[in-house]
Amino acid sequence: MRKDLHSQSPESFRDSISTVDAEGKRVWLYPKKPSGRYYNARKWVAYILIAFFFVGPFIKINGQPFFMMNILERQFVIFGRLFVPQDFFVFVLIMIALIIFIVLFTVVYGRVWCGWTCPQTVFMEMVFRRIEYWIEGDANQKRKLDQAPWTQEKILKKGTKHTIFVIFSLAIANMVLGYIVGGDALVNMITSKPAENWPVFLAHIAFAGIFYFVFARFREQACTQVCPYGRLQGVFLDKDSIVISYDHVRGEPRGKLKKKKASSGCGGCGSSSAAVKPIVGRAKKPKVNPSPLPEIKKPDVEEVKAPVSEEKETVRKMTLEDVNPTVSTDQPLGDCIDCKLCVHVCPTGIDIRNGTQLECVNCTACIDACDEVMDKIDKPRGLIRFASANDIEKGKPFKFTARIKAYTAVLLILVGAISLALVKRGEVEVTVLRAPGMLYQKAENGDIRNLYTIQLVNKSNNSFDDLDVLLVDPEGKITIAGGDMQLKEGAHLDGAFFIDIAPENLDGMKNKITIKIMNGEEELDELTTNFLGPIKK
């Protein structure tokens, strides 16, 4: 059994979610305000991500939004490139590659995504939680405010906080709509009256209500009970994964820090251990009572009277067993002083000293809190740090395992396939098919005629107003049904055309022909199709 788990008392180890009590009721968390180098770094990462989130819908590349997921109109823009339903396979490859990248990153570095870049954590800890600290104070002040009766001060603080929460929820909902419909459409919706577009307005209110509920009430439950990512850690992580870890080899057995150690042990109690500190209290002169009460002795307290020069002293024996019953008095303490600050700052309420847990989002708040304590007691930092289990237990550095290599290979193959698909992806997708169920026809001049259908999908930001179809091989004539063809930006076009070829240019019933799709002098695509002719005798 692991050294740290063996030394823990039953009360310190748990086998249930930290935010739910034995009766299944919600345990409301009051995390202490974190501070330190990692927290400062997280703030800068959050500032960049939040700024990008709010300006993202208005960034354009070649006239297209930087990112847009317009599900209603089936238009998707990624990095300024328009993807239509015909590109769905590319979109699926991108999503699969992203998932595998997250898995690979988790196998190596744990849940860094959750603690540093996940929108839930970024907005909760760096926006809404900080607003709460600013208005209601730190953990103890907020706990007292929640338990206090409703006064004018409490109503003012709670009302101000929730008003700001609603404003931020509305702003976030606006930006989410902007990523769906685009920045220009979002501005038009904001500046117009709600009555002009009731469905969008109601969707905006619904989004805002969901965000307010998540950040004001649901909070860490989204990470510990809804998000499946944490529950997959048992599959993703192994002993070589770098996660936030408690160095139990260095920290155990934990115990309270003694300011002074007795050189000769506990005076008068018979113990010679230097780790035992006697607790001595001056005994007052006993009062004479007419009917004294019978003496009740506690079984776990031993009173020993030690002779002194002038006054009597009452001495109670105290050993390391008062801190942890499983620790021997002869065993030296580790660096952990059991201050529990790592628990108090945790936004999900766990004790990182119990090992990796599904609620841990790698936010590094416990690292900052522990480093601060180590500085105060003149101990080296890193009792809680980014490390693998093998690093702590065996001193083995990180290495690329076979599983990491396999994930990396799959990821590289997917990235290569995506790159190839994007390179070969043209501005216009053309599909030409012979009209189903129709044989060839003979024209008045004796040429063999076939009818074809054509579908064009514009995947670019440009319009094509001078489209034409040319027959490259063999010689022949093309007649477009319905006149000129025009293709607008991001649109699709269905049309038809006839191809007439002289019989002497045909080799039999089935012939291969090559055609080009032109826009003026620009060649958009070249493709090959079949032409049906008479059987040669």
Low-confidence region ranges = 1-11, 261-285, 296-304, 308-320
Q: What is the multimeric organization of the chains shown?
A: single chain
Number of strands: 19
Q: Can you tell me the overall shape?
A: elongated
Major sheet: 5 strands, antiparallel
Through-space gap between termini: 88 Å
- Beta strand %: 15-25%
Count of helical segments? 16
Class by alpha and beta content: alpha+beta
Rg over C-alpha atoms, rounded to the nearest angstrom:
37 Å
* Mean pLDDT score: 82
Q: What percentage of residues falls in helices of 4 or more residues? A: 25-40%
What this model shows, in words?
The protein contains 16 helices and 19 strands. The chain has 537 residues and is of the alpha+beta class.
Task: Name the features.
537 residues, four-stranded antiparallel β-sheet, disordered N terminus, elongated, alpha+beta, five-stranded antiparallel β-sheet
Give a brief rundown of this model.
The chain has 537 residues and is of the alpha+beta class. Helix content is 36%, strand content 19%.
